[in-house]
Amino acid sequence: MTVTVRFAPSPTGNIHIGNARSALFNWLFAQKNKGRFIQRFDDTDRARSRQEYADAILYDLHWLGIFPDAIDYQSRRFERYDAAVAALKEKGLLYPCYETQEELDLKRKIRLSRKLPPVYGRDALKLTLEEITAFEGEGRKPHWRFLLPNFPDDPAKPRRTEVTWTDMVRGPETVDLASVSDPVLVREDGTYLYTLPSVVDDIAHGITHVIRGDDHVTNTGVQIALFRALGSEPPAFGHHNLLTTVDGEGFSKRTGALSIGGLREQGIEAMAVASLAVLVGTSENIEAKTSLDELAAVFDLSATSKSAAKFDPHDLFALNRSLLHRMPFDAVRERLGALHVSGDRAEAFWTAVRGNLETLRDAAAWWAIVHDGPDESGEVAPADIAFVREAFDLLPAEPWDRQTWKVWTDAVKTATGRKGKALYAPLRMALTGRPSGPELADLLPLIGREGTLARRP
Ligand code: GLU
After folding, report:
1. Which of 81, 117, 377, 443 has a 20 to 30 A CA-CA distance from 24?
2. Which of 5, 7, 10, when mutated, tests ligand 1's pocket best, judged by the most ligand atoms within 8 Å of its CB?
């Protein structure tokens, strides 16, 4: 059977690095197994879901290098869910309940005070026809619960019933179906909660492996029961740890700065995001991989830790620098062109500056420094002006190459007696307006003699 996975966010906001982790885990798993990746939008909540979020999610996935084999929307599949509901009702596995939230809260408190597990007590199964008619007469609409298979013959007497699976990340897992309430599958207003549509779609799409966050472990026990109730064998499951902020807080689709789009805006490279999203909280070293293929080579679901992984944005900048510092010109030619860094000297320029960049965009600032002169950020200290003028009078004749800097500064050293920082720092300031930056031996031939003379203070 072809390995088939899916990434199933609700399009109710922009995806963040934690969502990217799920998406990439699925994508890399599919790549390694020559499988298929289905993009599923869990948009049954029509009030909160938006097409623009779905589009933005697809854009973010493409940016990361994920190209789904198929895309589906739950909002287009209600007939399938309705059919599953009919089948479950037919089998007596879906039953109507009329309790309000307040009534449920009260029942829960009573059970707790009687030292019973705080799960739904299945009172609705005992409702008489008159009681149901009375509720309906009051205008109450039922919500519908799935009768979990956790009893030998009397649903009022559930017993420990273990659902087990070998989790691809966590190893052997067990959920006791007597410890969870019969899940509500359909709300009073007829809308679907996530549980049923997800299972119906996993069956219809032939999903073989469900890889998702470990906040879904208990759901999995319930969903395995639902797969079986719908006549299907459940897929394999893998629940990866979730990412938290450094303070241990969960991410939300509203955490704007850490959204994938927000990181892109800040100039973080896609592979820096992907490398960290995949490698954090695993036994692998966190280092910047240059392609998803390279990441796939070290990706191993079972090497993922069971506890939450802290995500530190500083790591992202470190990975970003390391990617840029090694990035070949061909890999950035087009993007540099968009920053107006182009022409004969673009490659030499790139090789000279890439080791000093936080983000690719910084290249534009260095390009301007090389071509137009220092910006306003710094100038030669008054005490050094005479020295710099003297040095500029000693500039060698062209042609210039990488040796010119040494030839020049040797001559300046001999003439002025200055050496070390006292020699180099004022020249760097005069040439670039910055106290640090790329090797001047590389920059000098790019600036050229005329350009250099124009910087004479
Ligand atoms: N829409 C669900 C979520 O985002 C999907 C979970 C799953 O992968 O089954 O949590």
Report:
1. 81
2. 10
For residue 130, give Cα distances in angstroms to 94, 126, 127, 244. Answer: 20, 11, 8, 51
pLDDT digit string, tens, across residues 188-218: 999 999 999 999 999 999 999 999 999 999 9
| Residue 305: predicted pLDDT | 85
Judge if the beta carbon of residue 10 lies within 6 A of ligand 1: yes
**Domain around 115:** 91-162+173-179
Q: Is residue 257 part of a domain?
A: yes
- Surface-to-core class of residue 247, CB atoms within 10 Å of its CB (0-12 exposed, 13-18 middle, 19+ buried): exposed
Quick one: 309 and 353 in the same domain?
A: no
> Is the CB of 404 inside a 6 Å radius of any atom of ligand 1?
no
* Ligand 1 nearest-atom number relative to CA 9: 4
Distance (angstroms) between ligand 1 centre and the Cα of 13 equals: 14
The residue whose CA is least distant from atom 3 of ligand 1 is: 9
| Chain segment 135-152, per-residue pLDDT in tens | 999 999 999 999 999 999
Low-confidence ranges of the chain (pLDDT < 50): none
Give the integer Cα–Cα distance in Å for 441 and 407.
10
